[in-house]
Amino acid sequence: MNRTDWEALSAFPLYGWVLIFAALFAQSTWLFVHATRHGRNRWFWGLWGLIQVPTPLLVYWLWHAWGRSRDKRA
Known about the structure:
The protein is 84% helix and 0% strand. It is mostly helical.
């Protein structure tokens, strides 16, 4: 990282970092708990949920919906 990158990061307000952390933590916790209840790969979803927002949540929702529709057909 060069000097301008650090300046840009330090200019980002503290409440922004808190909101990002809260969103990541809430998403990861929800994914972990929901995946545990439904017998999915809980650690994968929980760790992926800590990395970015909201892609893991959207992919999990699609994956879960696809699994439910597949189970109903069987």
